[in-house]
Write a structure and sequence with these properties.
Elements (H helix, E strand, L loop, with lengths): L2 H37 L14 E7 L6 H9 L7 E8 L5 H9 L5 E6 L9 H15 L7 E5 L3 E3 L3 H12 L3 E5 L1 E2 L4 H6 L2 H7 L4 H6 L12 E5 H6 L12 H11 L4 E5 L4 E3 L5 H9 L9 H15 L1 H8 L2 H26 L5 H8 L1 H21 L3 E2 L2 E2 L2
Parallel strand pairs: 1-2, 1-4, 2-3, 6-9, 7-10
Antiparallel strand pairs: 4-8, 5-10, 6-8, 11-12
Helix pairs in contact: 1-12, 1-14, 2-3, 7-14, 12-16, 13-14, 14-15
């Protein structure tokens, strides 16, 4: 045997082992996602009315077009007998407060506060807006006890969603419940990227085990919809405790767990949805502001992206270009990842997948490449100090 053929054999063996390892990772992810599809908790369909005070805080900056939809949904909520909604207009420049007033006029449960101040030093915009909203609620005699809810302006609610979320908080005994909305995706870029939000935890974290654990690393949270026990929120320091965080939702959940309190996630796709970004440009800017924080450090980022390449890019390449056993392993890995992605979308949606969901699942390798590119861009812009969000610098 010639030296060149030996080299080819060694190279082929190394590549096949890489594909095999990647496929095994995908199989493990599929098993985890399938388990979560079966056992992850969901918001209940039927609950008793919530009689204790419920204070909803809605921080909004330049949300003139999206905020009215949420406020209309909040006006139609059923089963919450003592509801107060405080909209904090975070120094908007597009008429957000006026749009809110037009929807809330005549409803004594709703208050619109026009904020004009920029975030204090060492504060990020959203934690500052949430903190100021709670301050105003407290000054009006609300928020000291009962349930405290934070909702993003782009969330949409079914008529019983808020009551179901409050009931879940009390029945679970948790300090925080995060109802996970269906992440709506309409443009091609959104369809590729947005389902990754749920898939990343659904394929890596068995939710039943995470519910029993107090480890901060097993917390899952989504700042679009957070439901707190008011006293636990205040004892933990509220948003002041995460003033400089770009992922304040997750950091609050971890903080509560470090304090020995429980946090829960509940799938809410049947009654709660959110379209975070409309189109490719908005999506890129949105992820640009925080993805550089996602994996702890540059080394962590390289490790995670490298593992993702082995698990979700190497197998489909082997399927397309390999032969024999390598190609079979590639097929196993690619189809496992596709099935995992589809299970996660069904879990999030709370019903059968759409044609777009199926197409997105089969395009999973492209989604992973896109997520990697967004992460690299986020790191690059953070190092350059040019990261901004809604007109405010973040670096």
């Amino acid at each position: 045997m010639s030296p060149s053929s030996v080299g080819r054999d060694v190279s082929g063996s190394w590549i096949e082992k890489t594909v095999r390892v990647g496929s095994l990772i995908s199989i493990a992810g599929l098993a985890t996602t399938a388990a979560n599809l079966r056992w992850a908790p969901r918001l209940p369909a039927d609950t008793r009315p919530t009689t204790e005070p419920v204070t909803v805080c809605v921080p909004a900056r330049d949300e003139r077009d999206r905020l009215p939809g949420l406020l209309s949904d909040l006006r139609r909520q059923r089963g919450v007998e003592d509801l107060t909604v405080l909209v904090y207009d975070d120094a908007s420049t597009d008429g957000t407060a006026a749009a809110a007033d037009s929807v809330c006029a005549g409803d004594p449960r709703f208050t619109v506060v026009r904020g004009t101040e920029e975030p204090p030093d060492q504060w990020v915009g959203k934690p500052a807006a949430c903190h100021r909203a709670v301050q105003h609620a407290t000054e009006s005699g609300r928020g000291h006890h009962g349930i405290l809810v934070f909702l993003d302006a782009d969330v949409r609610l079914g008529p019983h969603a808020l009551n179901a979320a409050c009931s879940t908080l009390r029945e679970s005994g948790a300090a925080l419940v995060c109802p996970w909305p269906l992440q709506e995706a309409r443009s091609p870029t959104e369809i590729l990227v947005q389902p990754l939000l749920a898939w990343t935890w659904a394929a890596t974290l068995p939710i039943p085990a995470a519910r029993r654990s107090q480890r901060p690393s097993t917390a899952v949270a989504c700042g679009q919809f957070l439901v707190f026990d008011s006293e636990e929120y205040r004892r933990a320091g509220g948003h002041r405790a995460v003033a400089g965080s770009l992922t304040e939702d997750l950091d609050l959940a971890r903080l509560l767990r470090r304090r020995g309190r429980r946090t829960e996630i509940a799938l809410a796709g049947g009654s709660v949805s959110c379209r975070m970004y409309s189109g490719a440009t908005a999506l890129r800017r949105g992820y640009d502001r925080w993805l550089w924080t996602a994996f702890g450090s540059r080394v962590g980022t390289v490790a995670v992206l490298g593992t993702a390449a082995v698990a979700f890019i190497a197998p489909p390449l082997a399927l397309a270009a390999g032969r024999g056993r390598m190609r079979r392993w590639g097929a196993v890995g690619y189809l496992s990842a596709t099935a995992s992605r589809l299970c996660a979308r069904v879990l999030e949606r709370g019903g059968p997948p759409t044609v777009a969901d199926v197409a997105s699942a089969f395009a999973h390798p492209l989604s992973v490449v896109g997520a990697g590119a967004l992460t690299a861009s986020s790191h690059h812009n953070h190092r350059r100090g040019v990261t901004r969000w809604k007109g405010r610098p973040l670096s």
